[in-house]
Amino acid sequence: MAARDIAAALHRVESVFQRRPETGLHEDPPGIVRWEGGLRAVATHANGKQVHTDMPEELGGTGDQVSPGWLVRAGVASCAATCIAMTAAREGITLASLEVKACSRSDARGMLGVPDANGEAVYGGPQGMDIQVRISAPGVSPERLRALVERGQANAPMSAALRTAVPMTLHVEITGA
User: Fold this and answer.
1) What is the pTM of this model?
2) What share of the chain is helix, strand, coil (3-state, %, to 5)?
3) Domain 67-109+123-166 class?
4) CA–CA separation, 75 and 77 (whole Å)
5) Where are the domains of the chain?
6) How far from 159 is each of 82, 121, 128, 163, 171, CA to CA, in Å?
7) Tell me: the pLDDT tens digits for 6-29?
8) pLDDT-derived band at 83, boundaries 50, 70, 90
């Protein structure tokens, strides 16, 4: 879709949100995953698309699929790229290229419940995330592109969820075997 078409669509939605702010709040489609055996799982979207996951061989998987942690990083990068592209379209900037890389560092001991040398629990999640953006747009100054990236990234929902540690609840249903 061309930048002007994206901008027009965003303008229509923004116009609706300004008139009826309550329409902006909605339930997100759930992520539904089914275990396939071993450490393999498959996530299925409502439209039928599937993403398979597995763990690396050193953690007991086959290593032939992406890991759940990679999906988080890819989701953060994809969300940031999308929001940056949306911001560019809204501002009438035609991008020549855009690449977003999300990197993190984790301690696998936390995932396995292995304590540190002092017997303390090790955090299993990423210890931080580094987002790297490469962007180009003919005739647009580096300062304007940097500001565009910062605005787009500031609005990226997945980055926001990680920055603010969204509250999470757990519900368990035990079914008959």
Assistant:
1) 0.89
2) 40, 20, 40
3) alpha beta
4) 5
5) 31-66, 67-109+123-166
6) 12, 26, 11, 6, 25
7) 989 999 999 999 999 899 998 888
8) very high
